[in-house]
Amino acid sequence: MIPVCHLDDLPEGESVRLSTEPPIAVFRTGGALYAIDDTCSHQDASLSEGWLEGCFVECPLHAATFDLRTGQPGCLPARRPVRTHRVSVDDSGFVHVQVAADAEPAREGSAA
Fold first, then answer.
1. In CA terms, which of 35, 69, 88, 91 is 20 to 30 Å from 100?
2. Phi and psi for 84 in degrees, rounded to 5?
3. How far apart (Å, rounded) are the C-alpha atoms in residues 69 and 33?
4. Beta carbons within 10 angstroms of residue 94's beta carbon
5. Rounded to an integer, what distance in angstroms lies between the CA atom of residue 92 and that of residue 1?
6. Three-class SS string for the chain?
7. Is the model's pTM score more than 0.85?
8. Exposed, middle or buried, 24 (CB in 10 Å: 0-12/13-18/19+)?
């Protein structure tokens, strides 16, 4: 488990980028937390710098969208999904990410 931040430090509609390898973006939207690989699968751009709309993030480079729940692209030019990761909040309110194995299926975010 990778510690991220306290839940109060991640406001609704915002994201935080983890300097892991590969980088991971954690989003808080719609009352839930989601974590995906931070790099757009179309071209090297940080999704944590993109725009949130519900459970979708739009890449700031070429406007590809990704579903935060599944990692699946919502439109071109992206064709490949990004990995999703399990997010949890401990009893003290601290957010953690469990990095998914490459072959692990996508998971929905947890309630915030």
1. 91
2. -105, 155
3. 9
4. 15
5. 15
6. CEEEEEHHHCCCCEEEEECCCCCEEEEEECCEEEEEECECCCCCCEHHHCEEECCEEECCCCCCEEECCCCCECCCCCCCCCCEEEEEECCCCEEEEECCCCCCCCCCCEEC
7. yes
8. buried
Task: Give the amino acid at 2.
Answer: I
- For 6, other C-beta atoms within 10 Å of its C-beta total 12
Tokens, residue 104: 């692990």
What is the identity of the amino acid at 61?
L
- Pair of tokens at residue 41: 């699968």
65-70: Cβ within 8 A, 24+ apart = 66/36, 66/40, 68/27, 68/29, 68/34, 68/36, 68/109, 69/34, 69/106, 69/108, 69/109, 70/106
